[in-house]
Amino acid sequence: MPTHKHVTLKSHHAKPYRKRHVGLFLISLIMFIVLAFALVSYRDRIISGLASSRTFVSNLFPQSDTYKVNISSSYGFNLMYDQKTFFASAISNDTGSLYIGSELSQQRPYTVVRVAPSFVAGANNITSSSSMTLTYRLGKGNANTAPEIAALKDGGIDPASVIRVATSTATIGGNSFQKYTWQSKVSSSVAPALIARFVTYTGLVNGNSFTISIKLGVTGADESAYQPVLDTVSFNNKVSVLDAPNSSVIAKAQASRSLLDTIMNTGIAAATANSVDLTGSEKVAALYSPAVVKLYNAYCMDISIDGTPFGTDFCSAASGSGFFVSQDGYLATNGHVASTTPQDVAISFAVSTYINNADPKSLNYLVNLTSLKPSDIPTNATAVQTLAMIVDALYKLDASRFSATNNVQNLLVQVSPKNPDINALLQDTKNRKTYSASDPSVLKAKLIAADYRAIDGYDGYRASDVAIIKVDGKNFPIVKLGTITSATQGSDLSIIGYPGNASNNGIVDSTSSSATLTTGKVSSIKNALGSSKKLIETDTTIGRGNSGGPAITNSGEVVGIATYTADGSGQGKGVFNYIRDIKDLTDLAAARNITFDTNSATQTAWQEGLANYYSSHYSYALKNFAVVEKLYPNDSKVAELTANAKKQIAAGKDVVDFPLIPVIIVGAVVLAGVGFGLFFIIRHHKKHVIYNAGVAQGTVQAVGTGVGKQTVAVLQHSPTVGPPIVTAPVATPTQTAPSSTLQPQDEPTITTVSAPGEPGGPEGTQVTEDSTSSPKVSEEEPVTNPWFRPDNTQDEPPKK
């Protein structure tokens, strides 16, 4: 059925478009483009600001999006391993440096590659004591050492302690290798079935020696667990020729080899995909350095045991690091930095004089107070075992039997870079006086709790060497305490502290100091010897004075306290460093009913200020920094950042907040303008088409003088085909035309009806429509139908 449509035509419909409609559309479109450009410019400005504000954050690491890591040596061999199953490390021959985890994806002249099972692989996989070492040498190796013996040594296996039980051949990377199976010569006297097993491969590749050593341990692990890695080993015919390493590189490689052995021969908490958080260590340092402080502990005392004088003038002084863990003044540090109990001092003095000076008097005196007898010490005990038994016996003495008299302890917390007057501190301590600091940034502290033994670790650690001290005050900046579980092997670790060489006064050699950042990686997680408590082994240097500082992951969580170094030189520059688990601190606090208040307004304002500073919202950062200066004026970084923020604002680089609501409103208005403009243009164009069709058919008067609006009824088929058909005008419809004058119902018709007496006049026309499509006409005027001739002979209807 045809449909009817009423259309009112006005004079402006004679034009194909109206300027106001096109203007609305164009203006709205331009505003939309300008808005989009402004948004893009705002985004670019933020990105540019981020880059300039974070120039000091250089320690960013890529995230690994795959579990497969390809290790490529420029010496011509390659292998691949799955990080979900294995963890790997390698030594580069050009620098002697150790590389681990995702660092191995870059090609280097690796000569030693170690692969070990990831601890997270599960109990069904090979044990954590197992490992595989691949070693490459230019040439055929040492002519005086048999290849199979060289392979044992390459894997850190003592050839004198094993026997060969089988020999065979194998193909690796398309090359023939000799395979040897070994086991330990002597089994444990306690458990004879515990026999260690090993497998080695030796071969020549392109004229160069290549060995593979697999440690299988005593658990019955099978070398087939490493077959997926062995299957990926390949060799290139072309080998890069590199200069031989010098002596310093060789020495560093040896140290790296030792570290590599340490990594792989301990229980590992490895990262599954070795993903690294993108927060750089420098940003972590900026965030938490205000909470890290320098500590001074100077004391003098006379000691009595059971009321009997043991000695006089036991004096000492040292410095270390600590960090606020509660906004009301609680700090964490090492026990050896802050604890000075008379029992610790007496035992330490007695042992040190015996070991260092061969003077046994003080030690014998203390031993006689215990129940320890010579018969209690086994005849085959080593000197270390004997000393450990003596120390344990001494610490079993009741601590109340030791008393300090004529004593003073000056435990100070330095919360600004300016050091206290060291000479005055030492002199006051020697004179048994409490040090009076003229600088308000040097705070007096007192020891609240400690888990510490001055002599510990001979045959295991009995104490955790952590301490809690307190200063008066509030609104101190604080660190965020985490858990050791986030310190996975290979993850980045930062230590903030106050390292420094001792001067003649035993503490410092300068008038000021500032927190120093040292970075490294987690080597492994271990149990402390003789204890179930955890230690983090790291290559992050713990120098002198760093003791007691926080060890922080790149996610910003403190996982431990820097405690031990094992370089043997006493200079704090060793490879092996150990961090006490932060749980030791929280356990100590819980045991002493100490609650840490972590709601620090200073730290909140500082963090918000840094966040605004990094995102170039310098105006907001200034407001945050002003809060920090008011609450904690000792923050040494806030003045520097404030000055830089003002400089950036003056340079026009301040980024204001994104005006979300105004942008939404403006965007909605602009889009509405575009939409309405387009709607009006289309609607006008449709009426313009009808106007042209009506004018062409003579049923619509062309625009001219005295011509007003004209309303037409459009009869159009659906779908629309061709232009609308406009019929001749008709009178006001009041009666139904005879059926003989009806138009065929299968053709579209537009009927224009003029008002009585004013056809096409200014008042326009009126159109009515019947549901049967039969037009009604007025009695005053006859029906005129262009489909019929004047002589009533029917003409052909118009074509569609």
UniProtKB/TrEMBL annotation:
Keyword match Hydrolase: yes
One GO-annotated biological process of the protein: proteolysis
Matches recorded under SUPFAM superfamilies: Trypsin-like serine proteases
Matching InterPro entries: Peptidase_S1_PA (IPR009003), Peptidase_S1_PA_chymotrypsin (IPR043504)
Compositionally biased region (Low complexity): 731-745
Highest rank taxon of the organism: Bacteria
Segments passing through the bilayer: 21-42, 660-682
One GO molecular-function entry: serine-type endopeptidase activity
Keywords from the UniProt entry: Hydrolase, Membrane, Protease, Transmembrane, Transmembrane helix
Annotated region (Disordered), positions in chain: 731-800
Polar residues bias locations: 765-776
PANTHER family given in the database record: SERINE PROTEASE FAMILY S1C HTRA-RELATED, SERINE PROTEASE HTRA2, MITOCHONDRIAL
This protein's name: Serine protease
Organism: Candidatus Microsaccharimonas sossegonensis
